[in-house]
Amino acid sequence: MHKNAFDNGQIKIGIMGGTFDPIHYGHLFAAEAARVEFGLSKVIFIPVGSPPHKQSQRISHPEHRYRATALAVSSNPNFEVSRLEVDKSGITYTFDTMKKLRSIYGKDADIYFITGADAVLELLTWYKFKDLFTLCRFITVTRPGYNYMELEQKIEEISSNYGGEILCLEVPLLDISSTDIRERIRSGKAVKYLLPEEVEAYIFKNGLYKE
Ligand code: ATP
Ligand code: MG
Hints:
Layout: E1 12-18, H1 25-37, E2 42-47, H2 62-73, E3 79-81, H3 94-105, E4 110-116, H4 117-122, H5 129-135, E5 137-141, H6 148-162, E6 166-169, H7 178-186, H8 197-205
Parallel strand pairs: 1-2, 1-4, 2-3, 4-5, 5-6
Bound molecules: adenosine-5'-triphosphate and magnesium ion.
């Protein structure tokens, strides 16, 4: 799957990492906006296995999150989903995943990790973040609740202290979160049009987020 990407010489790849519990239009639009804006050949969605920052939280089985993500990206020929993290045992770190992607795509590939603004503000708490900055660049998209000044300051701090490269992309703000979708399902509220229909059907078929 990954090898074909070499066909056109220099490759620019976007990586969209997340818990995706469940995946929704906020994730999909962020990835597509970044892909088009920065001319990325494709975006690979990588559902995390066991995220370090959500250890105290109950999250859905990786297989459910992976399958729903696969359904969500299937209609976009420029999107892929990867099992890289869900198949790994133990806590999964972006640093390890990025090292693996480097070994697949080579040192000359342009790799961009796409995140929402909230994730960038936390970036300096990530495992081996300094080394991570040598492996990939970041694209951060705006997200409801973000503060322009705070985000700019963080990007500047990361750049001047650690040489981390973060490109910022302003997108129409979609006030959608997985937390809200889970709560809405639990309390019987509407979720249609917040996430792809296939994902909604998958959730209901498997009885996810009922409690
Ligand atoms: P949760 O509420 O469970 O934390 P989430 O909606 O924040 O879920 P995650 O899987 O935590 O989704 O997020 C994965 C990535 O997608 C993060 O970088 C996050 O900032 C980004 N993201 C999530 N929702 C949006 C959105 N509505 N707009 C822009 N970026 C988003
Ligand atoms: Mg989140």
